[in-house]
Amino acid sequence: MSRFFRSKYGQLKDEELIDLYLNKGDEHALNHLIKRYYKQAYYFALSILKNPMDAEDATMDIWGKLKANLSKYPIENFRSWLMKVIKTSCLRVLKQRLKNRTDDLDEKNEPSFVEFPPFDALDDKASNLEQLSKAVDGLKDAQNRCIVAFFYQGMSYQEIADEEGFSLKEVKTHIQNGKRNLRLQLTK
């Protein structure tokens, strides 16, 4: 690809790249969009799954389904939409892991349950993750974006301000208010 096309795509907004792909079949636009968010998507998946191979698999799976999903859903903010898709996909992986752990138990060896801690702790952890995920989804948009960027993606206040177009003070306020609202929702 020539330098002209790289710079042309680099200057376009996410929605413009999506529009080029959907309306003109421009694969370069889609590839540029993927390249723009690849690392961010991977590290977000890694923050949830805590396993590099699973995070890479989840990320690749999402990119593989991107073409179909772009034409199915109207997307106003690609980055927010992508983070929600990744979170949902990763929670599905965690749920499957939990199911596999319990399916692998040998039911004939029931007395072993007395010797080992109950698997309720694993159920509670998955349940807590789902509650937290729903609570984060329930936040106002600006709070949601700042909370996800800071806690899940490990971005600094400055990086969030640069990416989202907020001032540093606004980022701090959105994170503080988001944390307070999460605490209120989770202690109901």
Attribute tags:
disordered N terminus; globular; 188 residues; 80% helix; 0% strand; mainly alpha
Describe this structure as you would to a colleague:
The structure is a single chain. With 188 residues, the protein is an all-alpha fold. Helix content is 80%, strand content 0%. It is built from ten helices and no strands. The longest helix is centred in the middle third of the chain and has 26 residues, at 78-103. The protein is globular. Residues 1-5 and 106-119 have low confidence and may be disordered.
β content, as a range?
A: under 5%
N→C terminal distance:
54 Å
Please report the total strand number as a whole number: 0
| Biggest sheet details | none
SS field, number of helical segments = 10
- Low-confidence stretches at least 5 residues in length (pLDDT < 50)? 1-5, 106-119
Task: Give the helix/strand layout.
Layout: H1 3-10, H2 14-24, H3 27-49, H4 52-72, H5 78-103, H6 112-115, H7 120-137, H8 141-152, H9 157-164, H10 168-186
Helix pairs in contact: 2-3, 3-4, 3-5, 4-5, 5-7, 7-10, 8-10, 9-10
